[in-house]
Write a structure and sequence with these properties.
alpha+beta; 7-stranded mixed β-sheet; 16 strands
């Protein structure tokens, strides 16, 4: 369980981290082909929050809850429990995410909007929960936002009998009339807007938060770990278009550094919020 609830503010907006799973000691090549522990050891600022002295890395699956303008938004609601997924570490799990969500002061019926940066299985799972033999919406009063390109990509990625994330986590939302298809640059109101950050998936977006002269950015998976700030050319194993993903990382890291945005890494472990700083000809992530 979390030792404490982590929260940050961007002007009048409040952002809360809710962790589903956080795992240390991962060989970096598991997620970043060709990048090994010795490479991580050459980035000393990764220790202790993001890597160990031996070069293994930490990785988190988590959601961010944004409260602003009288609304509550959940961004990327993790893997979920009891889901049928090909990745063994996610398949048919039983995590205490919901205990953490409620202990942080939130309730399902108080959520107004669910934002998905993309539709990989670890970003949609808690949209539904099992009720008997059926999957039903968890946030029954919320609008759930999708892009056309992501819906098509998710449908094409499912494998009947092995991974049915669309059927389990998305179809029930449409059946309940809770789904909205939005543009990849949609203005969500209250200083919230999407920006296309494609490459990891075809319709991937990130969420900008602007309030009272301050700026924040929830990344999604245009990068997965702070090490990619130091080596933004390094792809992640799930990138659908490696070249496009690389261009997106460079562009977004440069923008984050120039704006001073509070940068919230969707899979960053331990201390996922910080600032991106220019570091020579690359970047560094400094947690706050």
């Amino acid at each position: 369980m979390q030792a404490q609830v982590q929260r940050w503010t961007v002007g009048a907006a409040r952002i809360t981290r809710v962790v589903e799973a956080e795992t240390p000691g991962i060989p970096p090549e598991l997620f970043f082909p060709g990048f090994v522990a010795a490479d991580a050891q050459r980035i000393p600022w990764l220790v202790p929050d993001f890597a160990a002295e031996d070069g293994t890395i930490g990785f988190a699956v988590q959601a961010f809850v944004v409260e602003v303008g009288g609304r509550t938004l959940v961004v990327d609601p993790c893997v979920g429990n009891g889901k049928r997924l090909q990745f063994p570490f996610w398949n048919d799990q039983d995590w205490p995410f919901w205990d953490r969500f409620t202990e942080a002061g939130f309730a399902a019926d108080a959520v107004d909007v669910v934002v998905h940066t993309h539709l990989h299985a670890d970003h949609i799972g808690w949209d539904t929960r099992r009720e008997g033999d059926a999957w039903v919406p968890t946030f029954a009063g919320a609008r759930h936002l999708y892009t056309e390109a992501e819906l098509a990509h998710r449908k094409a990625s499912d494998v009947p009998g092995e991974e049915e994330a669309y059927a389990e986590s998305i179809a029930p939302i449409f059946a309940a009339g809770l789904a909205d298809i939005v543009e990849e640059d949609a203005d969500l109101g209250d200083g919230l807007r999407l920006e296309p950050t494609t490459g990891h998936t075809p319709g991937h977006v990130s969420l900008w938060i602007e309030s009272e002269g301050e700026i924040g950015l929830i990344t999604g998976d245009f990068l997965h770990h702070p090490l990619q700030c130091a080596v933004p050319d390094t792809p992640e194993i799930g990138d659908a278009d490696v070249g496009e993903a690389r261009e997106t990382r460079h562009r977004m890291l440069a923008t984050a550094a120039s704006t001073g945005a509070l940068f919230l890494g969707t899979h960053f472990p331990t201390a996922p919020a910080g600032r991106v700083q220019v570091d020579g000809d690359t970047f560094r992530f400094v947690p706050v």
